[in-house]
Amino acid sequence: MVAKNTDEMKALAVKLFQINAFKFGDYKMKVGINSPVYFDLRVIVSYPDVMQTVSDLLVAHIKDLQLSSKHVCGVPYTALPLATIVSVQQHTPMLVRRKEAKAYGTKKLIEGIYQAGDTCLIVEDVVTSGSSILDTVRDLQSEGIVVTDAVVVVDREQGGAANIAKHGVRMHSLFTLSFLLNTLHEAGHIEKATVDAVAKYIAAVQINSDGSFIGGDKSVAEANDFSRTKLTYESRANLAKSPVAKRLFNLMATKQTNLCLAADLSEADAILDMADKCGPYICLLKTHVDIVSDFSESFIVNLQALATRHNFLLMEDRKFADIGNTVSLQYGQGLYKIANWADLVTAHTLPGRSIVQGLKAALGGANSAKERGVFLLAEMSASGNLIDEKYKENSNKIATEGGDVDFVAGVVCQSADCFAFPGLIQLTPGVKIDEGVDKLGQQYQTPEHVVKERGADIGVVGRGILQASNVEKTAASYRDRLWAAYQERVAK
Ligand code: S5P
Question: What residues bind substrate, as annotated (predicted)?
Answer without folding.
Answer: 264, 286, 381, 442, 462-463
